[in-house]
Structure formats: C-alpha cells, structure tokens
C-alpha cells in the first residue's frame, strides 16, 4: 500500500520532467508548427552548459541563452526557408540533431560527464528527493513565466496573433519574421533550462537529447498544439499513467500502454485535449 | 594542430574504403588488414569507442615491434552505429570488400548475434571483447571477455559469502540481462537465496523513480544490476537521491567499469561492488605497461577498463596465433590458437580449445571515491570457461531452454 501511495508523487514528478522538456516545444512546434527534431540537442546543450559551469543555479540563465542562441541560428540559417514544408523541416532538423550529437562527441568525448549536484539538494521529503521537488518547482515557474509572457506582454500577444492568423497579423503591422525569431529563441532556451535540470536525474552525454525528444512530442501532441494548459494537463496525465502502468507491469510494458492510450485518445480527439480556435485552421 | 580522433578514424575509414572499392583489393604483401567494428555513434558509443582505442593501441604496439610475420597491421575502422543490422552489414563489407584477415568488434550481445551468421557464412574470424551471457560457442568467434562462470557466478559467490540472501534483479530489456537473470535465479534456488523481484527497462531508459520505489519497498539485501549503457547513470542518481546506501543495500553491477564511473558520478556509486576480470588497479607488470601506454597515447586523465583490456588482449592473442600458424588463414589460425597462453594485464590468459573462450581470473572490486576500483576478492587462478555451465548441476536445463 505504501508503495502504491508513493506512486502518486512519483507520477507527478515524472509529469514535471515531461512538462519541462515539452515546454520549449509548445513554442516551436505548438506555436510555429515546426517539427524540430534538434529540440533534444538543445536540451543536451543546456546539460553541457551546466557541466562547463560546474554549478546548477548559475547555469540556468546561461543555458537559456546558449540554447536560445543555437535555436535562433538554426531558425535564421535554415528553418525559415522551410516554413510550410513540415516534412522537409523534419528531415533538416533531424540532420542538424545528428550533427550536434557528433559535435558534442568531438568536443566533450563519447563518455558521459558528471555534473555535481549541489549539496542543498541532497535528501528529501518522504519518497520525493529534493532534486525532484526542485524540478517540479522549476516546471511550475516555467509555466507561469510562459503564461505571463504570452498573455501579459506585448511581444507575447503579438506571438499569439501570428499563430492565429499570420497574414492578418502581418497586415496589422506585426513583423512576423521578428516574432518567429523570438519564439524560436524562447522555445529553444526553455529546452536549455530543461537540460540543466535533467543533469540532476539522468546521464549527461552526447545522446542525451534522443532519450527525451519522443516524450516531449507526445506531450505537445496529446495536449493540443500551441496549448499551454493542454501541455500541463497532458504532462501530468502521462506522468501518472506512466507511474501506475510501470508499477503494475514493468517499464517496457508501461511504454506500450502509454503509447496505446495516446493513440486511442487521438482517435477520439485528433487535435489533442484543447483545440486552438482560429479561422486559418478551420 | 590537434584533430579529434573520431574525425581521423572516419577519414581513415573513408580513405581505406575508397582504396578497397577501387582497383585490386588484395592487400600488398607487406601489410595485413584487420577490421575494427564498434559503435562509434549512438547510445553504445560511450563504451565501444574506448575498446576501439585500446585495439588501435595494441595494433600500434605490435607494428612498432616489427608487425606479424614481418608484415604491418593496417586497421580498417567501421562504425556499427549502435544498430544491430548495421553491424551485420559492416561485417560483410569488412570480410568481402576489404578482405580483412580478422575482425575485432562488438559490445552488446545483440550486435554479436547479428554478426555471428555473417562470420559463419564466410568462414571469417571475429574476436569479441566483452563479458556476455554465455550459452554460445561459435566456431568462428573467439570470446576474450568473461562468460557467466567467470563473472556472474563469482559475483553471486561473493554476495553469498557476504551473507546476502534476498536479491532484487534489475536489468536492461535484451538478451544479456534476461539470460543472466535466468542463471541467477537457478543459482539462487540451489543456494537458498530468495529473488524478491525482477525488473527490466528498455535500453536508454532514464526514468527510474518507479523502479527505485519498487526496489526500496522490497527491502532486498542486495541488488544484482545488469543495466547497460546510459541507464546506469539515471538509475544510480535516482537510487542515491531516494536515500539508498551501498552499506545497507549494495548494488552489484556487471556492466559498469572505470570508464562509466565518471559519467555516473563517483558520489552516486562509490562503495558499490562490481564483478570483472580486470581493473586499472590490477597489479601485474603487463598492466603497468598497458596503463602507461594507454595514458600516453590518449591522455593522462583516461582510465582503462575490463572490456578495453579484453579488446587489447584480443589483438595480441590473434597475433600470437598467426605467428604460431605462420599464416593469417582462418583455418590455420583456429588450429594454432588452442592452448596459447599469454601474460596479460589481467594475469595469465589461456585460449580454451574446446569453446574458444579464455581462461580468466574473476575479480570483485569496490568502487572507490577516486573513481578507481579496488579489488576485494579474486578467484586465485584463471577459471576454465564454461559457457554452457556444464560443470554446475543446478544449471542443467538452462542451456536446453535456449
């Protein structure tokens, strides 16, 4: 029974990890419709930033900048020439992700590196270690920041306008190219932040991004494209589902169950939990 | 100017591939081509790149000492890319196109199983350098890593000696952990030990909180860990932050060597035992020279580990067999190999004629705060390889079940 109850906070903490890795993707994939397979490598860039800086907290803003600038370069140099061509973008960014993985391997070596966890994160409350609580806190902070940005700032409102109707936004005087740049910068930067947090619980190596990219897309798709509340709800639901499915079966079967549930769910609601209402899309 | 090794290797491979596909592929009379086939990219690259490096070192040393039969060894490096069909494809390329004399390669059992039919079909030789689950003995493979009775069973003997009666089994979901756990369960049944749980996770899995919860709630005396690759990092980090300690619940690992300790973080794994045949700290004259040469070639901060040493040995053992045979012909080398005994970094290694595995000394070590492994137990002498566990009555039926 204790083990069963333990799975509840565990599920929430898995959900927080999912939310953190998917938050950036709700921007680039959700808002802009860009299937960015290199998103995982921006997470990796964040993790390696923490490794180079040797500390967790100072690495958070730096990783945001590093991954954000990488995303900005990718968007300006390549992706913007492929808007409206999702399959080409997929291939392009997948290639970029392989290049970035090899780059990390050449720069830092193939073996994993270690990022020391700060001593104040040792220990925990009940089943939840402090580092898991830290990740949950960071995920909540990230969601609040994104929500404030999208709804309370001029830039954020312009972003939403471009998402809802690009042509109308452009004719209203919004520089859509600049909005795209900024959106990609923030989305990629959030991946960098997730990367820093993941050093607390997972491996830090060139292949790091590949472990999280599929889960990140699952959350965004299940939640509904471009929907912040959808991403939050989907992350928590998938976290709990994962936790209990693995508890009653095993890790391999839990993955199968999660996929099966998502496929079934998308049959009923093909556009995810929440649907963006827009004249362009309908 | 410093160009990184993977790039050099890739260029070298490209250049050699270009030569091979060009005019006459037959090697010039002053050279012997040998293939090195490991994952240089993908999830297994973390481990396999180091084995490739150790094999290159052995080739360089042998060439410096005059080569084999007066000829220089020329490595042809290929990338298995952590993808099993790619291993089979590249093995075919090395044998058919490059016409290499032998191949050193593989790490996961899945890659070996993928390559096995290729080597048997073309009657070519593979030297496989990693400890594995046993129950195999291909006439075209030499196994220079441990089989189960040289690693897993000594590991269980050690746990039994320590009075650990209740075990929890954790492993990656593929052939090695599943077969290893079958053996562990049979051993436990015969030795009055209890298995409290058996859990598998997919390769590359990083979310271990549920599994850690299951392990902690079951309260085992010890955990037997057959996880492979990056999953170990996530497992040990999350186990430690759940408050588990090496004193109360040691986790015996069979796939974590010096190379992996740094990535896991010494803080997370210090004090836990591992089972291998070789450690960087193993005290033999040959090891002193090996560690020195490896650090000189690849950097003072590099460590040496069991699979690296087994790969390094493989090149020397093959060279010795070629010298004895007077030819690189596969049949002649196979005939010459049995009984070859060399003093290697891990101590005496003898090629068994019956199953082409090696006599090896088993060693249990404890991971130290400096990241190295200190030996706390050894088998005293090289153990005869027994891949089908014929010498263990409790294991009867395991081989038949395969």
TrEMBL record, chain A:
Localization annotation: Cell membrane
A cellular component term, taken from the record's GO annotations: plasma membrane
Chief site of localization: membrane
Pfam families, per database record: BPD_transp_2
KW Coiled coil (keyword) present: no
Gene Ontology biological process terms from the UniProt entry: amino acid transport
Entry's transmembrane regions: 12-30, 50-74, 86-104, 133-150, 182-204, 216-241, 253-270
Record key words, sorted: Amino-acid transport, Cell membrane, Membrane, Transmembrane, Transmembrane helix, Transport
GO MF assignments: transmembrane transporter activity
Membrane topology type: Multi-pass membrane protein
InterPro entries: ABC_transp_permease (IPR001851), ABC_UrtB_bac (IPR017779), BCAA_transport_permease (IPR052157)
Sequence similarity: Belongs to the binding-protein-dependent transport system permease family. LivHM subfamily.
NCBIfam families: urea_trans_UrtB
Name of protein: Urea ABC transporter permease subunit UrtB
Organism: [Actinomadura] parvosata subsp. kistnae
Automatic annotation (TrEMBL), chain B:
Gene Ontology biological process: amino acid transport
Extent of the signal sequence: 1-23
Cross-referenced InterPro entries: ABC_urea-bd_UrtA, Leu_Ile_Val-bd, Peripla_BP_I
PROSITE patterns per record: PROKAR_LIPOPROTEIN (PS51257)
UniProt keyword terms in alphabetical order: Signal
Entry protein name: Urea ABC transporter substrate-binding protein
Organism (species): [Actinomadura] parvosata subsp. kistnae
């Amino acid at each position: 029974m204790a083990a069963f109850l333990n799975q509840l906070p565990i599920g929430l903490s898995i959900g927080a990890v999912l939310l953190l890795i998917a938050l950036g993707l709700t921007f680039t994939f959700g808002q802009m419709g860009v299937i960015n397979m290199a998103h995982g490598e921006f997470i990796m860039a964040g993790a390696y930033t923490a490794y180079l800086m040797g500390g967790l907290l100072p690495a958070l803003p730096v990783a945001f900048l590093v991954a954000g600038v990488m995303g900005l370069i990718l968007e300006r140099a390549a992706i913007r020439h492929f808007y409206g061509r999702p399959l080409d973008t997929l291939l392009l960014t997948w290639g970029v992700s392989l290049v970035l993985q090899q780059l990390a391997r050449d720069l830092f070596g193939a073996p994993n590196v270690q990022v020391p966890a700060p001593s104040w994160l040792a220990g925990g409350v009940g089943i939840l270690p402090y580092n898991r609580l830290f990740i949950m806190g960071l995920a909540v902070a990230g969601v609040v920041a994104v929500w404030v940005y999208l709804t309370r700032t001029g830039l954020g409102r312009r972003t939403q306008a471009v998402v809802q109707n690009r042509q109308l936004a452009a004719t209203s005087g919004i520089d859509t190219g600049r909005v795209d740049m900024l959106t990609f910068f923030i989305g990629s930067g959030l991946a960098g932040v997730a990367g820093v947090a993941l050093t607390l619980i997972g491996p830090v190596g060139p292949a790091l991004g590949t472990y999280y990219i599929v889960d990140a897309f699952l959350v965004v798709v299940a939640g509904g494209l471009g929907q912040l509340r959808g991403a939050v709800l989907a992350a928590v639901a998938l976290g709990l589902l994962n936790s209990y499915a693995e508890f009653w079966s095993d890790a391999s079967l839990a993955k199968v169950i999660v996929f099966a549930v998502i496929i079934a769910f998308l049959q009923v609601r093909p556009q995810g939990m929440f649907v963006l209402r827009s004249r362009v899309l309908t | 100017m410093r160009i990184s090794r993977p790039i050099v290797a890739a260029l070298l491979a490209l250049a050699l591939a270009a030569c091979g596909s060009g005019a006459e592929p037959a090697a010039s009379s002053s050279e012997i081509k040998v293939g090195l086939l490991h994952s240089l990219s993908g999830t297994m690259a973390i481990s396999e790149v180091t084995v490739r490096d150790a094999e290159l070192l052995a080739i360089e040393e042998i060439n410096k000492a005059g080569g084999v039969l007066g000829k220089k060894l020329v490595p042809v490096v290929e990338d298995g890319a952590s993808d099993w069909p790619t291993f089979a494809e590249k093995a075919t390329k090395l044998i058919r196109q490059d016409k290499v004399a032998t191949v050193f390669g593989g790490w996961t059992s899945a890659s070996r199983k993928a390559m096995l039919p290729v080597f048997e079909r073309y009657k070519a030789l593979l030297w496989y350098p990693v400890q594995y689950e046993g129950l195999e003995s291909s006439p075209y493979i030499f196994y220079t890593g441990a089989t189960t009775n040289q690693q897993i069973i000594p590991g269980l003997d050690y746990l039994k000696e320590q009075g650990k009666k209740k075990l929890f089994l954790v492993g990656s979901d593929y052939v090695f952990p599943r077969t290893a756990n079958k053996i562990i369960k049979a051993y436990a049944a015969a030795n009055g030990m209890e298995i409290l749980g058996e859990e598998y996770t997919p390769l590359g899995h990083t979310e271990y909180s549920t599994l850690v919860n299951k392990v902690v709630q079951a309260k085992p005396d010890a955990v037997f860990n057959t996880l492979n690759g990056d999953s170990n990092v996530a497992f040990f980090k999350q186990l430690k932050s759940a408050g588990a300690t090496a004193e109360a619940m040691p986790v015996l690992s069979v796939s974590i060597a010096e190379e992996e300790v740094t990535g896991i973080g010494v803080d997370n794994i210090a004090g836990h035992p591992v089972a291998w045949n070789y450690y960087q700290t193993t005290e033999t004259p040959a090891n002193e020279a090996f560690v020195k040469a490896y650090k000189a070639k690849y950097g003072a901060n590099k460590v040496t580990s069991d699979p690296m040493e087994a790969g390094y040995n493989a090149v020397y053992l093959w060279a010795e067999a070629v010298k004895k045979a007077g030819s690189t012909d596969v049949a002649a080398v196979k005939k010459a190999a049995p009984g070859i005994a060399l003093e290697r970094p891990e101590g005496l290694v003898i090629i068994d004629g019956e199953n082409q595995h090696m006599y090896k000394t088993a060693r249990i070590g404890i991971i130290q705060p400096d990241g190295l492994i200190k030996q706390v137990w050894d088998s005293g002498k090289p153990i005869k390889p027994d891949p089908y566990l014929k010498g263990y009555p409790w294991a009867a039926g395991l081989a038949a079940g395969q």
